[in-house]
Design goal:
Blueprint: H1 2-27, H2 33-44, H3 68-94, H4 98-108, H5 113-124, H6 132-144, H7 154-176, H8 184-209, H9 212-217, H10 219-241, H11 248-262, H12 270-282, H13 290-304, H14 311-324, H15 331-347, E1 386-388, E2 394-396, H16 397-409, E3 429-430, H17 432-457, H18 464-480, H19 485-490, H20 493-503, H21 505-523, H22 527-535, H23 538-544, H24 551-564, H25 568-576, H26 580-588, H27 594-608, H28 614-619, H29 624-632, H30 635-646, H31 652-669, H32 673-686, H33 690-698, H34 701-709, H35 717-731, H36 752-764, H37 767-782, H38 787-796, H39 799-804, H40 813-828, H41 830-839, H42 843-851, H43 857-869, H44 874-896, H45 910-923, H46 928-937, H47 939-946, H48 952-974, H49 988-993, H50 999-1002, E4 1003-1004, E5 1009-1010, H51 1025-1030, H52 1037-1047, H53 1054-1060
Antiparallel strand pairs: 1-2, 1-3, 4-5
Helix pairs in contact: 1-2, 1-3, 2-4, 3-5, 6-8, 7-11, 8-10, 10-11, 12-13, 12-15, 13-15, 13-16, 14-15, 17-18, 17-20, 18-21, 20-21, 21-24, 24-27, 26-27, 29-30, 30-32, 31-32, 31-33, 32-35, 34-35, 35-37, 36-37, 36-38, 37-38, 37-40, 40-41, 40-43, 42-43, 43-45, 44-45, 44-46, 45-48, 47-48, 48-52
InterPro entries: ARM-like, ARM-type_fold, RING-Ubox_PUB, U-box_domain_protein, Ubox_domain, Znf_RING/FYVE/PHD
Pfam family, one: U-box
Organism: Nepenthes gracilis (Slender pitcher plant)
């Protein structure tokens, strides 16, 4: 019985100790004092018999000395049973903390065999080796297993639970079987767990150390990464499970943790998901309204666990985000930061509860502040159309609709911004009661503000400090409460504002003028107010503001005029105002201010629609309406538009523009008797520009003009004169008309038929037409392609005689163009012209024209050139021109080269060419009297100076003059009219001894005789050889040839050329 009782006590003790051992192992900590006491009681319950007593038979109460066999057997059985029991207890105690259990064992079983074995093993055995991966795991788990209060986010808290279970499991595994660490599978699993835990530690540090907004921006990627790594750790635990099959309980724990970690789901909350999507949209740089920004702040505050009204804490979170993104390279993250900073700045603005407050002094009827529920939570402004959602929150209709639209665009469920509640319905119920209260409040304040505005605007002069507030108030009333515009109008405020612009325009400045125009612009939407403004002269005031100093004033003036342009009568008034269209046209073309340019262009297009404005617009340079009607209108409209255009003075740019678009229409109108006169006038205006004249030629205008000029159409003299003048303008510049057909038979303008008809027309046409015909002949003859042909055709008949008769028309245009035409003819038909002039005894007319002080410079220039081109004999030079004419020519030439301040200028007029040509007549003459004048007037010096002229023709004539002077000198030397030779004979040696130069040294190598140092007939003495040599490289061949001819006699004397080169 005693043995049975002992066994029962032993079983009870073992079960008791087993339970506490499991509990201690699960906790992984030292047993509390209460539990140590329980263990002690369990050990002591084995009874008073000590374990070592079972090895001593004499001490055993059940020992029977008489029964040696039985007693020895029982003693042996007891001893074996006790040792086994002791070892079981030690094994259980080992599963808990080693130090505690060993001390208990020493205290309760001091003499046991197991204690001696345990102590011996503890002294002799080495501690198990800890794998390096286990150290990394222990370090990571220590960092992760922190109190839950450390984390603001649910996901890291959930993973911390897995980390604690993993920590306990690994501790239990290596204390139960330290030798398992040497297994390759265990080492692989531990390395994998260590790597994944290190990565998870970095992610968890983001949750713990970064700002909350930063976590929200990256919450989706953090959740995905955390779930991925948790699953990986579960996989490594599965590998560890295959190694510890010998420990069923531990294997089950590993299996459960592996399964839980593989099935772990780390998700974002609905609010976090919404805020994440919203922030990502902000990272795309999308524009947002104030209402949407407010809703974003409310969502963000809920996700952060803050009150949306706690601006300081929200701003602090944004600053923390800014610190986190200090080195970020993500464009999206930086855009999110900029957007949040902008939203916070707007959110910090105080509610706009003083929209209509003018800051007047406190009176009984001063501004009434609104109740808080009058303000929309999103816009912070007084609501105009309050609506209620299913969340029972009230918003401004437009504001909440903006938010709903944003939610739908982002692909998220619409929510109530204030509560964050997901709305099942977007229905918006009007809050009629609140709307009525707000309307009553608004009307009361509007009446107060109108009353105060009238008071301040009626002051004389009005207070500049208060005018701005008054104008802002009136503008807001008109814009935000359009139904109250009639109250402003009936109070006379429109007239008062116009009067301020009239009387105080300078004193109030550009800024306030712009605000006044802006208030009137808003009030102009009221038809009666617009009529009042128009009657008060607002059109002129707005046009005056088009030159305002600020862009805002000019913009408001344009918008106000644009508002008035919707009525045709107003359009006529605007266009008739002096300078209005010019200002608008200049603003439309000024691209430095695109907004103003677009407004001015739009206003001009509206004005173009009114028929009465076409002429005003064309006068201001806007020809499009006129051109459009000229090209696409009826015959009557075309005639009317052509008449307008014919009376206008056109710029060169406008001429080309009109010619390109209307040339064909205008040419077609020449066949219409009613449209011929206005069309001819327009064509005449357009033909004054070379580019537009070329366009007219391409439109076959010459064919139609010749029919009118030569009388093939029933044209009156006036039409004939205009047609001839137009033709003269076209042919005045060569290069574009030479190949154009001039009549239906295909003749060109310089054909024999056309030239003959023009010469015949001179006989029976009007004086003005004669001028045009002479101009036409001059233009045709000036063309390089037609000069010789025209000259031959004119001289073949009585053309020269016909033209010469106009030289006596004093002070008329016929005389001018007659001289021009004869000058061209003299260059190619000088002999024929000279013969005709001599036959008619008109040669003196050219000389008289040169001496006539009443003649124009061009007439004298042409006369000089004609006279220079005529072949005159020596006798004619002496008799007709004479020595006095030579003196006059030299004097006039010097005058052409000197200006009043005394500076010598390079001659550029054709007068110099004519005068040089006249000098050639004299230097070709071998008269002794002329020789004296040549020396006296120093003609060689004059010619030499002209070698440096910029005009090729002047250089050519100067070289020829030097050539003729050199030839004159040789002729003089040949006739013996030279200086006396040096003394010869007996006295010559004495002269030599006295220092007289030898005769050979004084001999000119060109003339083979002595030449005076101041000789006007020797190129060498006149220093002309070097300038002539320089002309060899001139760009013009005629100049080079003349220089060669002048130096040809010198080529025999290379020493002369070398000394001068």
């Amino acid at each position: 019985m005693k043995r049975m009782a002992f066994r029962l006590r032993l079983c009870f003790c073992l079960w008791f100790l087993f339970g506490f051992a499991v509990l201690s192992s699960a906790r992984g900590t030292r047993l509390p004092k209460g539990e140590e006491a329980v263990v002690t009681v369990a050990v002591r319950s084995l009874g008073p018999v000590k374990l070592n007593d079972y090895g001593d038979p004499s001490a055993n109460p059940d020992h029977d000395p008489g029964n040696k066999n039985g007693g020895g057997r029982r003693a042996s059985e007891c001893q074996s049973s006790n040792v086994s029991t002791e070892r079981s207890v030690v094994s259980l105690l080992r599963t808990s903390k080693g130090e505690l259990n060993a001390s208990l064992l020493r205290e309760e079983l001091p003499d046991s065999q197991v204690l001696r074995e345990y102590s011996s093993n503890e002294m002799t055995s080495k501690p198990p080796t800890v794998p390096p991966a286990m150290e990394s795991i222990h370090r990571c788990l220590t960092e992760l297993c922190v109190p839950d209060e450390t984390y603001h986010w649910e996901n890291p808290r959930r993973f911390t639970g897995y980390a604690r279970r993993l920590q306990l499991l690994l501790n239990q595994l290596f204390r139960s079987s330290p030798e398992i660490a040497s297994s390759p599978s265990v080492q692989t699993a531990l390395k994998g767990i260590a790597g994944d835990l290190a990565t998870i530690g970095q992610m968890v540090s983001v949750y713990r150390e970064k700002s909350k907004i930063y976590v929200l921006i990256n919450c989706r990627s953090l959740c995905a990464s955390l779930q991925e790594r948790t699953f990986a750790v579960g996989g490594w635990l599965t590998l560890l499970e295959t190694v510890i099959n010998g420990y069923p309980d531990l294997c089950k724990k590993v299996s459960d943790l592996s399964r839980d970690m593989k099935q772990a789901q780390f998700r974002m909350t609905e609010n976090e998901e919404r805020v994440y999507c919203t922030l990502q949209r902000e990272g795309q740089g999308r524009p947002t309204t104030k209402a949407v920004q407010s809703a974003i702040i409310m969502d963000l505050a809920r996700a952060l666990g803050l009150d949306p009204s706690n601006y300081v804490e929200l701003l602090q979170q944004v600053k923390l985000l800014k610190n986190d993104l200090g080195r970020s390279n993500s464009v999206s993250e930086r855009r999110i930061l900029i957007s949040l900073e902008r939203i916070m700045n707007n959110w910090s603005a105080e509610p706009n509860i003083a929209t209509l407050n003018l800051d007047f002094s406190n009176e009984d009827d001063s501004h009434i502040l609104p109740f808080k529920n009058f303000l929309c939570p999103l816009t912070k402004e007084v609501m105009k159309d309050p609506v209620v959602l299913e969340s029972s929150q009230t918003y401004e209709r437009t504001a909440i609709e903006y938010w709903f639209q944003r939610c739908l665009e982002d692909g998220r469920d619409p929510t109530c911004p204030v509560t964050g509640q997901v709305l099942k319905s977007l229905e918006q119920m009007p809050n009629i009661g609140l709307a009525g209260a707000i309307e009553e409040w608004v009307n009361r304040n509007i009446e107060i503000q109108i009353k105060m505005a009238v008071r301040y605007l009626c002051e004389d002069p009005p207070s500049v400090d208060c005018i701005e507030g008054v104008l802002d108030s009136i503008y807001k009333i008109s814009e935000e409460h359009s139904s109250c515009r009639y109250k402003v109008r009936n109070a006379g405020i429109v007239v008062l504002i116009v009067n301020v612009l009239k009387n105080c325009s300078t004193s109030i400045g550009s800024h306030l003028r712009g605000k006044a125009l802006m208030a009137l612009l808003s009030m102009a939407k009221d038809k009666e107010s617009k009529t009042i403004m128009f009657g008060e002269g607002i059109t002129r005031l707005a046009i005056r503001s088009l030159v305002g100093s600020t862009e805002k004033e000019r913009e408001c003036a344009l918008k106000l005029l644009l508002e008035f342009s919707s009525d045709e009568a107003y359009c006529v008034k605007i266009a008739s105002e002096k300078g209005a269209l010019v200002l608008l046209s200049s603003m439309a073309g000024n691209m430095e201010h695109p907004a103003l340019s677009n407004l001015a262009e739009e206003l001009l297009k509206r004005l173009e629609l009114v028929e009465e404005n076409v002429q005003h617009l064309a006068a201001a340079g806007r020809y499009e309406p006129l051109i459009k009607r000229l090209c696409g209108g009826s015959d009557c409209v075309k005639i009317e538009m052509a008449s307008l255009l014919g009376r206008m003075t056109l710029t060169n740019h406008s001429k080309e523009q009109i010619a390109r678009q209307t040339a064909k229409v205008l040419v077609a109108m020449l066949s219409m008797p009613e449209g011929r006169t206005p069309s001819l006038q327009v064509l005449y205006n357009l033909s004054g520009l070379d580019d537009s004249a070329a366009i007219l030629v391409d439109s076959s205008v010459l064919l139609a003009l010749t029919d009118i000029v030569f009388g093939k159409q029933d044209a009156n003299p006036e039409q004939q004169e205009v047609a001839a003048a137009t033709m003269a303008n076209i042919v005045s510049t060569p290069g574009h008309w030479e190949l154009a057909v001039a009549n239906k038979d295909g003749h060109l303008m310089h054909s024999t038929l056309i030239v003959s008809q023009l010469l015949q027309l001179l006989s029976f046409s009007t004086a003005q037409c004669q001028v045009s015909v002479l101009k036409i002949l001059y233009g045709i003859a000036s063309s390089p392609q037609a000069t010789e042909l025209v000259a031959a055709q004119i001289k073949s008949g009585d053309g020269i005689k016909t033209v010469i008769q106009y030289l006596e028309c004093s002070g008329t245009e016929q005389k001018i163009f007659a001289f021009k035409l004869l000058r061209i003819l003299s260059e190619s038909s000088g002999e024929d012209l000279s013969s005709e002039l001599k036959r008619l005894n008109k040669l003196h007319l050219l000389r008289d024209e040169l001496h006539d002080s009443q003649s124009t410079c061009n007439e004298r220039s042409d006369a000089a050139c004609i006279l220079a081109n005529l072949p005159l004999s020596g006798e004619e030079v002496r008799t007709i021109l004479g020595a006095g004419f030579l003196r006059w020519t030299v004097l006039t030439l010097k005058e052409q080269m000197i200006v009043p301040n005394g500076r010598t200028l390079r001659p550029v007029s054709s007068m110099v060419e004519g005068l040089l040509g006249l000098l050639l007549h004299f230097v070709r003459n071998r008269d002794s009297q002329i020789l004296g004048l040549i020396r006296e007037l120093r003609l060689m010096a004059i010619f030499r100076e002209q070698l440096f002229s910029p005009q090729p023709r002047c250089k050519q004539l100067a070289a020829l003059g030097l050539k003729f002077l050199s030839e004159f000198g040789r002729a003089v030397m040949a006739d013996g009219e030279c200086e006396p030779l040096p003394p010869q004979g007996f006295c010559s040696s004495m002269v030599f001894m006295c220092g007289r130069a030898s005769p050979e040294a004084a001999t000119c190598p060109i003339h083979i005789s002595p030449c005076d140092e101041d000789s006007q007939l020797c190129l060498l003495k006149g220093d002309c050889i070097k300038p002539l040599l320089d002309l060899f490289i001139d760009r013009h061949t005629n100049v080079q040839i003349a220089a060669v001819e002048a130096l040809y006699p010198c080529f025999r004397y290379s020493s002369c050329l070398q000394s001068c080169s």
